[in-house]
Amino acid sequence: MAETNKLNYGGDMLIFVNGTPIAFSKNSKLDISLKTRDVGSKDSGVWDEKAAGKQSWGASADGLMADGLIGAGPVIVTATAAITTGTATLTMGSATFVAGDVGKTVKVLGAGATGGDLLTTILAYVSATSVTLATNALTTLAATASKFIWVGGTLNAYSTLVLAMNTRQPIPIIFATATGTAPSWTVSSVAGKTKYNGNGFITSISMNAPDADTASFSISIEGTGELFQTNN
């Protein structure tokens, strides 16, 4: 077939959790489903009739367990956070940032539209407690209550994913073709490539340590809200 050069190679596709790929991933899966509801009646005859209901999605991945990986995992911080609507300066109540965080994904819970989450990147490093974001806040946060702050790293080890699950908060998920070099994979920007992104809860992490084999883990994610399809 003449179009085989356009086929996706599974080894190039990864799940990114908060902008960071799952380390030593062996399998990545995205499930999208549509529920139906019964609208059949005696008028339907011998055939069932259905109507569309709600859609849902979920993701899962398998990977190898490893400790002490080269490359920083995401930083998950619970501390007071301050940012003002219409500005991009985020100030934390404890030392959170380093100069190398510039360009990384950051998620500030509560600073988005109508108190939702603000997902953006770090544009500039100011100090250990302050950075300039690439996107202005849409909701003001006063430094009076602790907030979850996510700063993306270069990989997600199984131990980082456990911490992410324990926050009991939805996390940005992307299913896409990866580019770059290990372990610093990023989402491909090649024209024509398709990616899927949304927010999801990590609902389970299973770890397996068989005798005479490499320890592994499996992660399951349940989506909340819409899953967006984007073509580069």
List the helices and strands and how they pair.
Layout: E1 13-17, E2 20-21, E3 25-38, E4 50-64, E5 75-82, E6 89-92, E7 105-108, E8 118-127, E9 130-133, E10 146-151, H1 158-166, E11 171-179, E12 186-187, E13 194-208, E14 216-231
Explain what you see.
This protein is mainly β and 232 residues long. It is globular, with a radius of gyration of 20 Å. The model has no long low-confidence stretch (mean pLDDT 86).
For the termini, the CA-CA separation is: 24 Å
- Assembly type of the shown chains? single chain
Shape: globular
Give the SSE order as H and E letters: EEEEEEEEEEHEEEE
Class from secondary-structure proportions: mainly beta
In short:
With 232 residues, the chain is mainly beta.
Brief descriptors of the model:
1 helix, mainly beta, 14 strands, Elongation Factor Tu (Ef-tu), domain 3, 232 residues, six-stranded antiparallel barrel, eight-stranded antiparallel sheet
